[in-house]
Structures are given as C-alpha cells and as structure tokens.
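Posted in: Structural Biology > Protein-Ligand Complexes

Title: Requesting predicted complex, zinc ion in pocket

I'd be grateful if someone could produce the 3D structure tokens for the following input. Sequence and ligand are given below.
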Amino acid sequence: MFDFLVNLFGTIVTVFFVVYLVLLVILQSKKKELSSLNTFINMNKMPVLRPIPIPTANQQLLLNKLLVFIFQVRRWRVEEAFIYEYEGKQYAVHAGFEFDGASIPKALWALLSPVGLLLIPGLIHDYGYRYNGIYVLDENNTPVWDKTILTQSGWDELFKDIGNDVNQIPILNEVAKFGLWLGGFQAWNKWRDKKEDRVPFKWKIDNETQTDSESLKKAPEDDVDDIDTMSEQDMSSETFDSGTTKTTQIGYVNNNNQKVLGSRNLDETDKKDVTFKMSCGQCSEIYGAKTAEIHRRKCPVCQEGKPSVNW
Ligand SMILES: [Zn+2]
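-- Reply #1 --
Done. Output follows.
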C-alpha cells in the first residue's frame, strides 16, 4: 500500500514536471504572440489595491517573526470602490474593504493564487462570504444592498461565473469551485460565527482613516494635488466637493482619461446646473463639465470635446 502511494505520488509529480517542460519549450516560440495580447487589457476596470504590511518588524521574538512570516498572508485594502458588471448587475465592493483571498482554500493557492488569475472573482467571493450580501449599483449609480445570493454554494457559483467572464479558462474555474466545495466551509463558517454587520458604502478611503497621513500622501500630481490641499486647509468658498454618485467623486477618471476635481455649486436648486471642475489627463487642460456628461466627457482642447462650461 505504502509503495503504491509513493509510486502514485512520484508519477503525478513526474507528469506535472514533464508537462511543464514541454510548455516551457513552446513558450520560447510564442513569446511575441503572447505579449501582443496585452493591448486588450483595460486598466480602468482593474481594482485599486494597497498592500497591507505583514507585521514581522514589530515582533520582539524571532520565533514570533518566523510564525508571522510563515503563516500570515498578504492582505490588500480596496482603495477605491471596485465595480464589476456581470449579467446586467453592477456589483460594488466598498472602498476600505480588506481581503486576502482566504475564502479560497489555501491548498489551492500553489496552483490557483488569489492574487493571480482568480483576483477579481476571489475579491468578490471574499466579500460575499464575509457579509453574505453585496452592494449593487442601481440606475442612478447609487449602491443598494443586494441579498439575491444567500448561500455558500450561491457565492461559489458566482465565483465560477465571474471567473469564466474574467479569465476565460472554464476548466480552471471549475477546479477552483471544486476546491471551494471541499475547503470553503472553513472561511464561510468563520464569518457566519462572527456575524459582522455590513459596512456603509464608501467610494473612496477618507483621509482621516489613514493611519499615517504624512507617509501615505500620494506622490504629487501637478496642479491636481494643490487644489486638493487648498480645499482641505483653507476651507474658503473655493472648496470643491464630490457629488453623491460614482462619476462625480473627486478623483474619478472616465474612459477618456478626464478627471473630476470636484464641484462648488452642488447646492444648485436645478441639479442640471451643477457643474464640475475637470482636468485632462492627456494635456492637463482645466475646464468645466455638466454632471450628466462626466462619464463620457472629452477634453475640449485635445479630444474635440464640447467647450468648457463655468465651474
Ligand atoms: Zn486634453
């Protein structure tokens, strides 16, 4: 029996190794073909994540450092609300959500890393396991708590479906879903025991919640940052604020690389008159745009967009 197991294990490892070597040889002739596919990737659709430090430095004992190093995995904080559209629903993960892919059983990580191909399905799956619900944007881009999925197997199914949508390797997602069926109950039960309340939706991380605001300050971004700093410190009538929807948040960038810098007439009685200060990511032009046109606004200078309005 023992011999049989050793033989089986040896055979499996050998087969994997041979397959790997064959693929490695094929890779050499395909390098150019593979890299040109990068042009399909739309960076705007990727989540904005900040790695959370792994706390080895603040451990006194070497043994403790070692335990943290071996057993603690990298956690990530979602810095801007992450929206993923699937079958007509806009799933929304709030800014500030911390995840580590732990709803994917660790035994699978060697082959299927939660920060590899499974990043996006894993992020949404972690969220679903944790709160057993998720925000969905309604037609006004307002986040609404959605309780359509209420079971572990429901979240696993969504994981597989979003995986197929994102990475388009159905067999991989099927294997991952099987892994969830085998080992996902640990994470699921942990969160059901904790009974955490859902968190109010946030589009962006507040500056106040940043532990070390000086060191975490973003790299200067020409005039854009000056405006931010001014509006925070002076509190003058020049304050620019975010609106209530996704596309009116300060820092929102549309597909044409046009960035929202905020509005100072949000209290306008006719909401159609509310305007936002914008900046162009291509040529740095500063101009004004109406609320409704922000999501598809083009720069008036370099993209033949509409002329600027008062802001
Ligand atoms: Zn421009």
